């Protein structure tokens, strides 16, 4: 995927809110080494750095475009341009933080214990992932993919939800944790603009499909999805679009 930081940050306030909610649920302690997995454009990494100014913070990000944006937003952070799926650090961290990133990786049954192994005993793992994949915003992407001349090019992208329920992650992390806190929040996001839910998904999940297509076919796919999603999320009397969005959070302390 080629990430567009400007597209992603169109709704930066709404996207930042769960990241801050996760950050504020991390107990007060004094980490020396912090990794931000999927650091994106650095707007959250900067807040991590501000909360723990004495720590060494490393932003790990697989998109060159996002790393370039992140280095501008948070120049006092160490940046590592690498695929999260291939992340094999030589050291362990006091805090591993990941906001809206790990859902892009497969096999969570192996992934989450592996990430927790990279936390020092007594350290913390803090993760937020979207769990909105059964909402019309995301279901209609798959419907569009399977009902058009582009089907053969994109149908392999129509997969089950990449994020499991809270109990799944509790069962994975509890044996490795002294304390574990898992919860879900559904934010009622009030969006402005023309077809804003399409613009929202174009900054993330829809990008997977658009990257496979080109030219008129790419534009036709976006337009077809846009028509479907505009009907699913009509504007209210004030001209706003209400977009409920569910997210899954977890904060776990590694066993000492």
From TrEMBL:
Keywords: Methyltransferase, Transferase. The keyword Hydrolase does not apply. GO terms for molecular function: trans-aconitate 2-methyltransferase activity. GO terms for biological process: methylation. It comes from the Bacteria. Pfam families: Methyltransf_23. CDD domains: AdoMet_MTases. This is Methyltransferase domain-containing protein. The lineage of its organism: Bacteria, Pseudomonadati, Pseudomonadota, Alphaproteobacteria, Hyphomicrobiales.
């Amino acid at each position: 995927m080629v990430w567009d930081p400007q597209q992603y940050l169109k709704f930066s306030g709404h996207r930042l809110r769960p990241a801050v909610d996760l950050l504020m649920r991390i107990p007060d302690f004094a980490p020396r080494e912090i990794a931000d997995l999927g650091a994106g454009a650095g707007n959250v990494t900067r807040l991590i750095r501000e909360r723990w100014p004495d720590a060494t913070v490393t932003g790990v990000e697989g998109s060159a475009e996002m790393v370039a944006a992140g280095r501008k937003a948070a120049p006092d952070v160490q940046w590592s341009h690498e695929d999260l799926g291939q992340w094999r650090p030589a050291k362990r961290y006091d805090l591993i933080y990941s906001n809206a990133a790990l859902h892009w990786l497969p096999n969570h049954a192996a992934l989450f214990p592996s990430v927790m192994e990279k936390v020092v005993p007594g350290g913390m793992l803090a993760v937020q992932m979207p769990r909105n994949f059964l909402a019309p915003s995301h279901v209609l992407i798959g419907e569009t993919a399977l009902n058009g001349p582009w089907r053969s090019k994109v149908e392999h992208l129509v997969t089950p939800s990449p994020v499991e329920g809270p109990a799944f992650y509790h069962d994975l992390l509890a044996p490795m944790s002294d304390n574990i806190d898992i919860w879900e929040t559904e934010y009622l996001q009030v969006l402005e603009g023309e077809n804003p839910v399409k613009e929202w998904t174009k900054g993330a999940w829809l990008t997977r499909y658009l990257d496979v297509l080109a030219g008129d076919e790419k534009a036709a796919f976006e337009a077809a999805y846009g028509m479907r999603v505009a009907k699913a999320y009509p504007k209210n009397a004030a001209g706003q679009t209400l977009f409920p969005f569910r997210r899954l959070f977890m904060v776990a302390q590694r066993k000492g």
